[in-house]
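User: quick one, sequence for these tokens?
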């Protein structure tokens, strides 16, 4: 696997970006030069160090309340990764279980679950997330729940399709004739054979969740306002785009690079684990 990754320049680039964001998030309290929520009105709207009027005391400048932008970017990565990983895990668990039940048992259970999937897929992803956020309210736990509720359907459809073909194979019939229970057949003998495409989808869905969290934070429906996030930083910079464009450019670049890294890593995983997988 490592040898294959070394031959992929895009895979290496994606992995490097993802690892960098993870390291920054885990070491935020150590490498952050300032408290991300501490206000310093005297030094508000300071440009980056490389611009005229900038200072190396605030390398990326300050915002309208004098808060250090670099520190807020560093701490914002923690929220982004927490929502991305937790939301992906929640959506994956729900989707895999529902898809397994639907594909293995069939009948009215399959019809019911697939109609729910079809109804949810008829709504745009971000519109559905906005609706759930408006109902549940803001908060980190609610954002993770929104990510899970919005993203489980893709896993369910994939797992169902895989199980429909696997459950008719000879080795499954042999296990069933030997007295193997349905739960044992599903979780011990079927799901391990569909885990590769699930991992690929999880990687690509993570990028979608990052964009969802940034969008909800931008609209004021994300985590509480006192917690620094990249989407919130973009929202705060709207009225200062002309006079202080760095306030929007820097968090925008952070979101773009992170999503790019996750997508590049996901593309490599797709090619490595299942080259014939059709999205």
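Assistant:
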């Amino acid at each position: 696997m490592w040898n294959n990754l070394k031959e992929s320049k895009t895979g290496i680039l994606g992995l490097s970006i993802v690892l960098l964001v993870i390291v920054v998030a885990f070491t935020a309290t150590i490498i952050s030069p300032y408290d991300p929520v501490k206000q310093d009105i005297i030094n508000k709207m300071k440009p980056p160090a490389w611009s005229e009027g900038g200072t190396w005391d605030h390398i990326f400048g300050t915002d309208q309340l004098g808060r250090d932008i670099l520190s807020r970017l560093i701490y914002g990565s923690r929220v982004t990764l927490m929502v991305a990983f937790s939301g992906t895990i929640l959506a994956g668990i729900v989707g895999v279980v529902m898809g397994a039940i639907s594909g293995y048992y069939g009948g009215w259970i399959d019809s019911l679950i697939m109609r729910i999937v079809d109804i949810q897929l008829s709504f745009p992803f971000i519109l559905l997330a906005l609706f759930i956020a408006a109902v549940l309210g803001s908060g980190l736990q609610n954002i993770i729940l929104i990510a899970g509720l919005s993203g489980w359907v893709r896993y369910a459809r994939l797992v169902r399709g895989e199980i429909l073909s696997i459950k008719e194979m000879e080795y499954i019939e042999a296990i069933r004739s030997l007295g193997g229970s349905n739960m044992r057949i599903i979780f011990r003998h079927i799901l391990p054979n569909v885990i590769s495409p699930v991992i690929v989808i999880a990687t690509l869905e993570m990028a979608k969740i990052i964009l969802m969290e940034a969008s909800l934070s931008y609209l004021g429906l994300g985590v509480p306002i006192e917690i620094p996030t990249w989407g919130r930083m973009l929202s705060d910079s709207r009225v200062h785009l002309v006079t202080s464009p760095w306030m929007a450019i820097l968090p925008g670049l952070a979101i773009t690079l992170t999503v790019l890294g996750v997508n590049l890593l996901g593309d490599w995983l797709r090619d490595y684990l299942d080259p014939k997988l059709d999205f």
